[in-house]
Amino acid sequence: MLSKRIIPCLDVDAGRVVKGVSFVELRDAGDPSELGKFYNDQGADELVFLDITASSDERNTMVDVVQKVSETVFIPLTVGGGVRNLANIRTLLNAGADKVSINSAAINDPSIISDAAQAFGNQCIVVAIDAKTINSPPETEKGHSQYGVSSNSQWEVYSHGGRRQTGIDALKWAQHVAQLGAGEILLTSMDRDGHKDGYDLDLTRTISQNVQIPVIASGGAGNPGHFKEAFVDGKADAALAASIFHYGEVTIKETKQYLAQNGIPIRM
Amino acid sequence: MPQIPIAIVDYGAGNLRSVEKALEHLGHKPVITSNPKDVQNAPVVIFPGQGIAGPCMQNLQESGLLESLKERAIENKPIFGVCLGLQLLLSWTEEGSQDCLGIIDGKNIRFPQKAKVPHMGWNGVSQTSDHPLFKNVNDKTQFYFVHSYYAVPYDTSVVIGTTEYQIDFASVIVKDKLAATQFHPEKSGVQGLQIYSNFLEYAID
Q1: Were A192 and a residue from A74, A220, A256, B202 both cysteine, which residue would form a disulfide, CB within 3.0 to 4.6 Å?
Q2: Do A267 and B122 touch (CB under 8 A)?
Q3: Contact criterion met (CB below 8 Å) for B16 and B48
């Protein structure tokens, strides 16, 4: 049986791993290579590296970090942040990334998804979606006729590391990117991210049940029970977390033991 | 184990560096090459793959690598196929309705859409026969998969491992000195490295 995946995420800024609370407050949590090896040894199923400030600072992604990590870590690596074009994707894949995550660039021009899927195969194209609950629905539909926010929208997509409102409906966007050839969706709840009170199960379930590709739940993990909820109630295929692992509050091994004891298919 | 010269076939498919690093980690000096002569003559060839069947087959044809691989298979020289590299060994794939190498009779078909496709993540391999490739690897060990099509070899005696995802499919194939896995050993941690190590030992034996 296919296992549910536990994925530590390493947010990288200037070659160091950091983790922000709701993308604002950054704290230093170590060296990417060492952390990667550490998590590999602990039983992580994959690693995600996100260059969190790349998009807004027009900075390039960390090719040498990926190269270094891929020399010692033999589990899948996903890299994202500031990926703008096919050349960026090719460079990262050649450096040792297995999947590349696209966010703002796909919102600017969704054809990057289909172009990349055709060039490299959809298995390596992850579309990252940062979604936030809509408190007051718009009176009139915003742009993006095909996937714009409308009166019955529940979540809106944000770009540029969560700083820019896009007027895009998260569910319609998820379905659109799947259709364009994305191989996987990395779904972050901006409402929950950094708060450690659990994943947004409603958001996760809604997206996961309405697309035919795997969905990684992200944002809000505070204890092993939250992972179980993400899989059972949220219908997620994988769950991502950062600070809970970085600061040793709970280890990946403990999390996986708990999940296995609770009947979740897990690789031990 | 002595250092074995290994050629990693570069035919426009991704994932080459990961394979190279895994083999280096085992103490070997692999060479990534698109030279048909290297591929024909190397003691061991790894035929990796990630990507789309059509462009990859076209690249193999135009570069002359296709003939080298077929020659090797006829001469029973060691080849290890990975993921798309396994699928291309068969006769045909539903992906773009594409003819493949035809080294193993059979075809590749797409997973039904009853569950999510691609089949992505860690899944168990049931060892359906005893083989040196599985030395020190427990039955049902999990490996990392990512694929939308799966192989259906017509002669099932080549199948030594199967995996369940909606259906039971062939995840490990062996025919003499030719072996192939649908999963990525270079992405499957310690147990994946063990598979490479086992193959090298078996290949030069």
Answers
A1: A220
A2: yes
A3: yes
Q: What is the pLDDT of residue B38?
A: 95
Interface test with B, best of A6, A74, A114, A237 (most B CBs within 10 A): A74
Q: Which of B17, B117, B163 to mutate to test the interface with A (most CBs of A within 10 A)?
A: B17
State the nearest Cα–Cα gap between A183 and chain B, in angstroms.
7
- Compare CB distances from B113 to A5, A120, A212 and report the shortest one's residue: A212
Distance from CA of A217 to the nearest CA of B (A): 15
The fold for domain B6-204 equals Rossmann fold (3.40.50)
Look up the pTM and report it. Answer: 0.93
Say which DSSP state A30 is in.
-
Render pLDDT for B174-184 as a digit per residue (tens, 0 to 9).
999 999 999 99
> Has residue A50 been placed in a domain?
yes
Verify whether the Cβ–Cβ distance A2 to B123 is below 8 Å.
yes
Chain A residue with Cα closest to B83:
A123
Q: What is the pLDDT of residue A139?
A: 62
Question: Model confidence over B55-91: pLDDT tens digits?
Answer: 999 999 999 999 999 999 999 999 999 999 999 999 9
Characterize B81-93 residue by residue with b for buried, 16 or more Cβ atoms within 10 angstroms of its Cβ, and e for exposed: bbbbbbbbbbbbb
Whether A251 is in a domain gets the answer yes
ipTM: 0.92
Which chain A residues touch B25 with a CB distance below 8 Å?
71-72, 74
**Two structure tokens written together for A201:** 């199960």
For residue range A153-207, list pLDDT tens digits in order: 999 999 988 889 999 999 999 999 999 999 999 999 999 998 999 999 999 999 9
| CATH at A137 | 3.20.20.70
How many domains are contained in chain A?
Answer: 1
Q: Would you list the domain boundaries of chain B?
A: 6-204
Query: Residue A20: is its pLDDT beyond 70?
Result: no
**B63 near A CB under 8 A:** no
Buried/exposed code over A46-82 (b: 16+ C-beta within 10 A; e: otherwise):
bbbbbbbbbbeeeeebbbebbbbbbbebbbbbbbbbb
For residue A266, is it within any domain?
A: no
Catalytic residues of A: 11, 130
C-alpha to C-alpha distance for A171 and B72, rounded to whole angstroms:
50
8 Å CB contact between B186 and A74? yes
Work out the pLDDT band at B1, boundaries 50, 70, 90: confident
Whether the CB of B124 is below 8 Å from some CB of chain A: the reply is yes
User: Is A33's pLDDT higher than 90?
Assistant: no
A interface with B, Cβ–Cβ < 8 A, is 1-5, 40, 45, 70-72, 74-76, 93-96, 98, 118, 120-124, 183-184, 212-214, 237-238, 267
Is B30 in contact with B23 (CB distance < 8 Å)? yes
